[in-house]
Amino acid sequence: MPNAVKGSDIKGLLWYLAGPGRHNEHINPRVVAGDAVTMAVYAGPIDRKRAWELGKLLDSPRQTLLRGEPVLSTNHKQARAFIAEGMDRSAAYEAATKDQNTWHCSLALSADEGELADGKWQAIASDFMVEMGFIDRGDGAPDVRWTGVRHGVSVNGNDHIHIAMSVVRPDGSLADVYRDRPRAQAAAGALEHKYGLKVLASREFEGTEAATKPAERARAERTGAPETDREALRRRVRAAAVVADSEAGWLRELRAEGVIVAPFWAAGGLDEVVGYSVRLPAQRNLETGAWEKSIKYGGWRLGKDLTLLTLRKWAPWEQSDAAREDALTEWRRTTPTAKGRPLVADPVADKATVAELAAWSRHLRTIPVADRDAWAQAASQSAGMFAAMSVRTERTPGPLDRLSRQLARAGQMPAHRRRPQPVHQDGLRHVSRLLWSTTSPATSQLALMYAMTECLLEIRAALNATDRAKAAAAMASEARKALTEIHMRAAGIDPSKPYDKRPGSPAWAAAARSSVVVDGLDRAAVEDKIRAYTAVNLSQRAFGAPARNAAQAPPAPPSGPSQGPRPRGPKQGRDFER
User: Residues near 204 by Cβ (< 8 Å), separated by ≥ 6?
Assistant: First the structure.
């Protein structure tokens, strides 16, 4: 998992990497990779003094050949945003121009992959630099000055390496760092296969999602927020898109949620909106009492399916001329504090909602498997439905949010390959409005959850019937985990705390019941097995009998029909199957 950033202080970067870290997590800092000079002089353990000297070595081409001049780079998108906010053009471009003489990229493994030896990390880092075109180019350009530093696993248990380099080559030319992030992803994918590492399905099958950054998580901690601004906005933008019947209604819903929305106007006036940004109001730092500046996000930074162009193609919005004019009127409003919702939730009872979801599932079965656009739209609308329920019933992103994001990844498709208008008409609008109007902090009825999950499994079946079997397996696995967690919470168990996973325990029963829905097991047989184990456990507690071993366990229930291959589930599900 690569994370590439640009900066201007390579000495300060290496000084930090050789230090204790923000949470004293840095252990035994050492140089394990680098160019020939770096390895000859600085290979092995390194303290802050030697790290500072190494930084001076890496920066020496810029200091010698460019006389220490900055390597200026202008972010034109940021400059245009400053101009849109009223800043003078020259001042905007000056503010968007920064010194970027340093390139830094961390390469991390998943926590469950363990740790690699220094020698293997050296080979991976060197191959990564070759894949990026920074060394061994073969066109006569000298290799950049660079180093690879390790200092133990991260606070989340991820083994990783930090690569730091100067963008100024020893001949004074500049290394090409254009589109470095997609290039880094491609290079990481090649190295995963080469070295037998865990291959990210999101990269392999283009179902990616923007991750939260450490700075975002740190800001949430300082303000006491239960989630980052990116996570909060992603849920609300996606949910409101399905709740609203028009683009104007979507804007009103967001403003009612306290979201500050700003349009990106097409050149030439206020007649066409081509994009948007959203942010939450500023929040106070709990320790200092100072206001923390809110972070602005464009639709693309929230999700590939949340750009305005893509929203207009999958959201169930009215497409009439009057609706478009109403949207323009709403976009032109300058007051970002509109309160109250203009629409009232439809008075649909839970039974009617379940029936409507069943009708949606039947509609999904009529979509041809080859119609990728129709399935993508269905996945995006279903993601909005789960997001609506998540916003209203989960204080922090939970299982419903995870299912929403899994569906959103399935609904990703380039805008130019989509139909110009939605194909599902009202789709899930009425159901989503009911969920959006819910205010209970508890998860809704299990019957409603089962009906929602059936919709997800229909989309899973369509993915499995095409060339996206791994995405289908991941969706089923996530559905099983989410339903297990929902059953556990209904039984009064907090999944975030230690709990009993043995056969017959409430957590085991929760996993069993989730497998009924996701894997198509026979419900009566599973309930009989749960009752049998419960009776055995009660008798053991009453008479102090030893725990029943696997040979004494009741037979497993017969498996029922299942759509597509049966993916591996959470640990609870595997315990149940055993």
Answer: 189, 470
